[in-house]
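Worked Example 4.2. Consider the chain below.
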Amino acid sequence: MKINYKLKLLTALIILPAMLSLSCRKDNSKPIPGTALSPKFSTSVRAADETVNVWETTSDQTKLLAQQANINFAADAGTNPTTITVDETQTFQTIDGFGYALTGGSASLINGLGANQSAFITDIFSTASGHVGSSFVRITIGASDLSSSDFTYDDMPSGQTDVNLNNFSISQEMTDLVPVLKKIIAVNPSIKILATPWTAPVWMKTGTIGNGGFTGGSLNTAYYAAYANYFVKYIQAMAAQGITIYAITPQNEPLNANNNPAMTMQSNEEANFIKNNLGPAFAANGISTKIIAYDHNCDQPGYPEAVLGDASANPYVDGSAFHLYAGAISALTTVHNAFPSKNVYFTEQFIGGPGNFAGDFSWHMNNLIIGAPQNWSRVVLEWNLASDPNYNPHTAGGCSTCLGAVTISGNNYTRNTAYYTVAHASEFVRAGAVRISSNTFPSTIQNVAFKNPDGTKVVVALNTATTSQSFKIKWGGESFTYTLPAGAAATFKWAGTQSAAGPPIGQTITLKGFNNDYVSGEDGTTAMTCTRVTPSTWEQFLVVDAGGGKVALQSMGMYVSSENGTMPITCNRTTFGAWEEFTWGVNADGTITLQGNNGKFVSSEDGTQAMTCNRATASGWESFGVNK
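Applying the procedure from the previous section yields the following structure tokens:
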């Protein structure tokens, strides 16, 4: 019995360590609780080599929205300092569309196209493959400066008024604008129409400065109610023609007195008009047409902020509209951040004839097609759809060099710069798409990304450098590399579902802890914390590929270090080694974990103490939201 007991004991002593060893090895291969990936992953789970369609335009016009050879995604590998990381799980504003202004002058030229008119309207507005597919159009309420003459819908002899609008009529639009709009709607029934006046009827104005009262002046307060009813009658008259007006702005360029026609309307005047007259008039007549404020340059974000900041006007206002003849496109984000529940629209930008294709194309792609959506715009509209070879028609004193997206000469038309800028987005990004996350760069490759209602993804990219640039588009665990010539733009489109997201290599991110504060590299010498309410420079981290499936985090040129795994972590290394390398894990809720060289997890502790890298398992305090 003693011998047997000793043999059993010896056997147990021999087997037990082996079992423990096997058990330890098995545990090391288990996924982290609550995560989607193994702690030793090197690449994320991939999808299936999706095919990417590519269209390109070059600055020398040798390629004009020309389809290129297809590309296939492959397993992400290698590094590229210009890596566009597309993340369809992070969504922003809905896109209503891209398009043009259909002025009265454009409509008259289109109406004269004869046998080519149908082909032209189909080319611009059809959503079938191979067409521009414009889904948003801006029209004018009465004449704009690109009409052949001045008029409103209630013009009266000098000295006479029509407060009850008994003489209101849209009859001057029945020759060109209304028939052309009806044909557009027949091709694209879901198109959205924005309508904007250049002036109120002259008899409603005070302080006019020329052209029989059509230039300058402001709306006489005595006629605020009449002018609100003018909008009501207009929307009802268009509806009677089967034309739904989706939105209006109260005044085109309300700070510009010198166009023909024109009318000024200061921010307090617009707020008063909306809250006391226009908004209530729409409500009383059951009109759902949206009211969009401002409709002028990006250099005065204080104007829409003042209108939206008026507590009584605010409920009637859907958002604000912008042009870019002055200021910076980032003003759209300024207003969005001040009023995040209100929408932002980009509604006008002209190209002066005869133009310079390379310069105009790059500027408009960068600031409008890419820049406006990156700054929250739902819409991007170029001005104007059509002109003749002499930039006609226009009023006396109106724009005499406005180059149309197309030039119409008799029964024929040729495509110009704005045709291609809009088409690079509108043909591929459908109404109802959403902007999705894609990191941007201070120079070289500018980009914006979208996800269509059918799930397809679109990236529009532009090379703003003076030499050819190679860049990578990374999507989940897959990527491809593409080279664009200087000044060229490309649109990429693909289907499929994003694979499990790996580290956003090359992207600058913020990390938000369990306490909803941001991780900070502090001043680069003291221990890191997770205590910042808002992110600034030391709270932004560049994700660097450290090789072997690991990443390094760099802030202000310094790398985050887990030290020896027992001391508080810092952000003070000029280069990265083993203790500055982390395994990036993804939790089921989209938050991430960082596992150090010691196999332990970075922890924000209780949100007040210095951060460490000594947790054996990951839970709330060891999980971080990316760019939240």
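Residues 2-28 form the longest helix (27 residues). DSSP finds ten helices and 37 strands in the chain. Compare this with Example 4.1 before moving on.
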